[in-house]
């Protein structure tokens, strides 16, 4: 019966573990360890812990297990391993499957820390990494070979909102026996169909839409039981990237409202994209849910929506972009996303500052680019805020 439940119902009830007190809201088990009835019981649990038996919170904890099971139920995977941050999840998903001599292919348009792992960490351990234009299927065809152990990409890239075709890239990767690891943050669990599209491992930064209220860092790795309870669990539990039980509780509460929040934020992004698309001070408006986006059809097929993020380019570059940011009265200048509060970021000078000039150019990260994470405010107030600030630009 629970199999037939829709994701929004699973986001409220999935993974529940009610104690003998019958609490309505999920309990927080703020404990590192667990007591055994006898020495024999301790021995047996270390030989093989059953599904709902715990040993040490770095390995697992009841509140964390609720979050893992709820996320797996929403995403449609067998299992999940929760991590201390999105980056702990990305690192664990990738590192747990690689050894020296392996080859990895990844899309070049990546979150800065993901790029650091691929460009700086993996080569230090003898892993060869090929970075390509993720939107170009012929580039994937050319780069993935029999030597390729895994491919990695963000299904929607930050900050220029380019999509990578999960289904087509998975077909290419699987033909060569490579594992498909997808960072699905910008797509959100609400719009993800990554499992049916061929992804083997799906990673989220829970810091974003899952919490959605800017309170805590977290992440999760989702996949088959074989992968999660095999290499992923082994790597994560021994290297210490565990999520804290308190964070898991915050995330569980976030999941209960995620569907409502993300759909409302998406409606706002859609309305703002439409309103801004002809604005004279903007050279381009990027929103996958808008007909002007070059991958609009792919966004519809892959996500069924355009998501909560919007980017736009202010014509006169840095000075104009900074005047715009400084004139905002509601949206905050910050760098989180998926939050209830709208957030505006100038990626060229913050999140992507480190990139050399020519790489910024290749990726379309221009001085006037603003990444706008649509929050839960009334869209009429946000529109007025943006239009007023554009006047100052
Ligand atoms: C934020 C983010 C991460 C990292 O998540 P943290 O929780 O900040 O560690 C990874 N990938 C993408 C696409 C992100 O937006």
Summed up:
This protein is an alpha/beta fold and about 400 residues long.
What distinguishing features does this structure have?
7-stranded mixed beta sheet; single chain; 15% strand; 14 helices; binds pyridoxal-5'-phosphate; 12 strands; Aspartate Aminotransferase, domain 2; alpha/beta; Aspartate Aminotransferase, domain 1; 393 residues
Give a written overview of the molecule.
- The chain contains 14 helices and twelve strands.
- It has 393 residues and is α/β, with parallel strands linked by helices.
- It has two domains: 7-254, Type I PLP-dependent aspartate aminotransferase-like (Major domain) (Aspartate Aminotransferase, domain 2), CATH 3.40.640.10; 258-392, Alpha-Beta Complex (Aspartate Aminotransferase, domain 1), CATH 3.90.1150.
- The mean pLDDT is 96.
- Bound molecules: pyridoxal-5'-phosphate.
- Pyridoxal-5'-phosphate binds at residues 85-87, 90, 111, 113-114, 154, 158, 183, 185, 205, 207-208, 217, 219.
């Amino acid at each position: 019966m629970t199999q037939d439940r829709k994701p929004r119902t699973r986001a409220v009830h999935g993974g529940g573990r009610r104690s003998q007190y019958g609490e309505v809201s999920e309990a927080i088990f703020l404990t590192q360890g667990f007591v055994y009835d006898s020495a024999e019981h301790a021995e047996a649990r270390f030989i093989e812990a059953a599904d709902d038996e715990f040993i040490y919170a770095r390995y697992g904890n009841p509140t964390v297990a609720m979050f893992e099971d709820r996320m797996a139920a929403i995403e449609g995977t067998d299992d999940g391993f929760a991590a201390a941050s999105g980056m702990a999840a990305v690192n664990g998903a990738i590192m747990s499957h690689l050894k020296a001599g392996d080859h990895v292919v990844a899309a070049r348009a990546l979150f800065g820390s993901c790029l650091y792992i691929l460009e700086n960490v993996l080569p230090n351990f003898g892993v060869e990494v090929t970075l390509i234009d993720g939107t170009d299927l012929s580039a994937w065809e050319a780069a993935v070979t029999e030597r390729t152990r895994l491919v990695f990409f963000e299904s929607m890239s930050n900050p220029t909102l380019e999509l990578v075709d999960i289904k087509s890239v998975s077909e290419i990767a699987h033909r060569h026996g490579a594992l498909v690891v997808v960072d699905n943050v910008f797509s959100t669990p609400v719009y993800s169909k990554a499992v049916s599209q061929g992804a083997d491992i799906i990673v989220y930064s829970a810091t974003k839409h899952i919490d959605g209220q800017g309170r805590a860092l977290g992440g999760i790795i989702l996949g088959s039981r074989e992968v999660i309870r095999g290499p992923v669990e082994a790597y994560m539990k021994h290297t210490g990237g565990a999520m804290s039980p308190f964070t898991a509780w915050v995330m569980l509460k976030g999941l209960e409202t995620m569907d409502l929040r993300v759909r409302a934020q998406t409606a706002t992004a859609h309305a703002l994209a439409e309103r801004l698309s002809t604005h004279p001070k903007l050279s381009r408006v990027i929103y996958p849910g808008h007909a002007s986006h070059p991958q609009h059809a792919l966004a519809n097929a892959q996500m069924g929506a355009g998501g909560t993020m919007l980017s736009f380019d202010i014509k006169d570059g840095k000075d104009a972009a900074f005047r715009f940011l400084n004139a905002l009265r509601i949206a905050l200048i910050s760098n989180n996303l998926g939050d209830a509060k709208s957030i505006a970021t100038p990626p060229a000078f913050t999140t992507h500052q480190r990139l050399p000039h020519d790489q910024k150019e290749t990726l379309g990260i221009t001085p006037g680019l603003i990444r706008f994470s649509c929050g839960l405010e009334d869209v009429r107030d946000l529109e007025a805020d943006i239009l007023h600030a554009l006047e100052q630009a």
